[in-house]
Specification:
The chain is of the alpha/beta class and 210 residues long. Helices cover 30% and strands 30% of the residues. The chain is built from eight helices and eleven strands.
Length: 210
């Protein structure tokens, strides 16, 4: 064990495909772990990490309250949370794009007084268009935002786009890419001060070329 404390470092991971990507990457670095029998807590085989599996949108909350000292998630989730963490590293995998999209052939026009947008990412959307001086009316949705233009709720959506296949399947298209979204390893600032040496060692392992 490389930790300079009696306990392994705690790390929160999001459920889903990103967790699978993290698992493959960590295994390459000798930090192999798995979640068996629907368990939500695991340890890597070397005993350096205690890993919690949580809902993506809840991850910053667990890290902010110190339940998990470390966390891995996208910059979209971190931004929406409003919490402030130290960013330890950015990964090459898991990146997507935050885009504004609408029905195929739709065009944003200069005479639109206010954008009407459906999105899960209300803070990002509000801040992004406010900085541009563009008034925006936001309808918050937690499910499939692609339905909003199809059913006439709003003409536009702001959402993460990876392949664009879901947009195409619903006769939608990207109108503009707003920001690249990256996946980060973050740490609670207080936790970092307490476990500085152990965290530096873990980050060195993750950044080392294999």
């Amino acid at each position: 064990m490389i930790s300079d404390t009696a306990e392994p470092l705690s790390l929160a991971l999001p459920k889903g495909r990103l967790m699978e990507d993290v698992g493959k990457f960590f295994k390459q670095k000798g930090l192999d772990f798995s979640f068996d029998n629907r368990k939500l807590v695991s340890y890597d085989k070397s005993g350096n990490l205690k890993i919690f599996l949580v809902k993506n949108s809840d991850l910053p909350t667990y890290v902010n309250h110190g339940i998990a000292g470390l966390g891995i998630c996208g910059s979209d989730v971190l931004y929406e949370s409003g919490y402030k963490f130290f960013n330890l590293m950015t990964f090459d995998f898991g990146g997507t794009s935050m885009c504004i999209a609408g029905m195929k052939g739709a065009k944003r026009t200069a005479n639109e007084r206010k954008l009407s947008v459906a999105t899960k990412f209300t803070k990002f959307t509000s801040d992004y268009f406010h900085k541009q001086g563009i008034p925006v009316e936001i309808v918050k949705l937690n499910g499939s935002v692609e339905l909003a233009p199809v059913l006439g709720l709003t003409p536009y959506i702001v959402d993460l786009v990876e392949t664009g296949n879901t947009l195409k399947a619903n006769n939608l298209e990207i109108l503009e890419k707003l920001e690249d979204i990256k996946v980060h390893l973050v740490v609670n600032p207080a936790y970092y001060k307490l476990h500085y040496k152990s965290i530096k060692r873990i980050v060195s392992i993750l950044k080392a070329k294999t």
